[in-house]
Design goal:
Layout (H helix, E strand, L loop, with lengths): L6 H39 L1 H29 L7 H33 L4 H27 L2 E3 L4 H12 L7 E4 L10 E4 L6 E5 L11 H20 L2 H27 L9 H39 L2 H14 L8 H7 L5 H9 L8
Parallel strand pairs: 2-4
Antiparallel strand pairs: 1-2, 3-4
Length: about 375
């Protein structure tokens, strides 16, 4: 019988995640340096050329790090995509970013011209509204561009999941099987959308029976992960996190305002403003992101407690987490500082230990 967590698998996980962190840090440093350089030369090359440099430069600077991350994932058996498939997804993301970013940039310039020095407040209101619209449209418009899904077909899996939803007393409009297995070996589930677009997604990889596991074990694992997602739904975490996101966006807008005042050569309301906006927003958002991550971890603990209660025992949840750690090549204990600054979830080791100890974290 396979030992969980598998010590050899954890050695591989440490190596894989360490390389991912290094790639991410290097990519962030290079892109930030590129952004600073673009802001520095904006006054001499003109606003439109600075905008072209901003869009093309950041895409090209990030490309080698993204490709290295893809190759690393392939080397460790997580990615199932071909290079052509990865490149296609990268281009799709760039095209969507160009359309959405172009609309946001044009709207910001219009707001700056209309509101004058008071532009940060209406800009913040607009970006919060824009974020809410994107959250609502994500499962019906954007997600299908990258991943296929289908309604949960009849069978033992569907029966178990719908029964879990009934036990939670949650009315689920749509439960879908996400075809993640076409692109990755990793497993996941999520609640996406707002209001009428809310959907619960369970990846096909999550429901796969693994080596040394019977079909009942796969069903139990999938049910407890769904119970965690239902916990988010019951606690209205999508709305809670939107409020926290609005506060984070306020910090980003203040950073953008400060950067425009300090670096934009023509002042607010011009195309030359946009590189400074991106720089200030990026830096200010990075400063407050650990607070957002800390709140997210709190919500995840509450959802864990809900899942353990719904499953009837913490051991079921703990075993499911161990399987997911092994499958997704996650570290049980990532570096503490990195975890505190960036992680949206508690460490797997903490989640497993709390579940096994019968601990309960009440929802706030």
């Amino acid at each position: 019988m396979t030992e969980f967590p598998d010590p050899l698998r954890q050695i591989e996980a440490h190596a894989y995640q360490r390389r991912r962190r290094r790639l991410g840090l290097a990519g962030n440093v290079v892109e930030l340096a590129g952004l600073v350089a673009i802001v520095a030369v904006t006054g001499s090359i003109g606003g439109w050329w600075a905008l072209v440099l901003l869009v093309a430069g950041l895409f090209l600077l990030g490309l080698p790090f993204g490709y290295a991350g893809y190759r690393l994932s392939r080397a460790h058996g997580l990615s199932r995509q071909t290079t052509a498939g990865w490149a296609a997804d990268r281009l799709k993301g760039a095209a969507i970013g160009l359309v959405l970013g172009g609309a946001a940039g044009a709207a910001l310039i219009g707001i700056q011209r209309a509101a004058g020095d008071g532009w940060p407040l209406p800009a913040w209101i607009a970006i919060v509204a824009f974020s809410a619209v994107l959250a609502a449209l994500w499962p019906v418009l954007l997600l299908p561009i990258f991943l296929r899904s289908e309604p949960m077909a009849s069978g033992d899996l569907a029966d178990a999941l719908w029964e879990t939803a009934r036990r939670a007393n949650v009315h689920v409009r749509d439960m879908r099987l996400l075809k993640m297995g076409e692109k990755t070996a990793a497993a996941n589930a999520m609640v996406a959308g707002l209001g009428p677009t809310v959907r619960i997604y369970v990846s096909d990889t999550l429901a796969e029976t693994e080596e040394g596991e019977d079909e009942g074990g796969a069903l139990a694992r999938t049910r407890v992960v769904l119970a965690h997602e239902l916990g988010h739904h019951v606690h209205r975490d999508m709305w809670r996190l939107m409020v926290v996101s609005a506060a984070s966006l306020a910090a980003g807008i203040l950073g953008a305002w400060a950067a425009v005042e300090a670096f934009a050569p023509d002042g607010a309301g011009h195309v030359s403003t946009l590189p400074s906006v991106v720089l200030g927003f990026t830096l200010a958002s990075a400063v407050v992101s650990p607070l957002v991550a800390a709140y997210s971890r709190r919500r995840e603990r509450a959802a864990d407690a809900y899942a353990a209660d719904l499953a009837g025992e913490g051991e079921t949840f703990a075993r499911a987490m161990e399987r997911l750690v092994a499958r997704n090549l996650s570290e049980l204990d990532p570096p503490r500082l990195y975890h505190l600054l960036t992680s949206s979830h508690p460490t797997p080791a903490e989640r497993i230990a709390v579940a096994r100890a019968g601990g309960r974290v009440p929802a706030a």
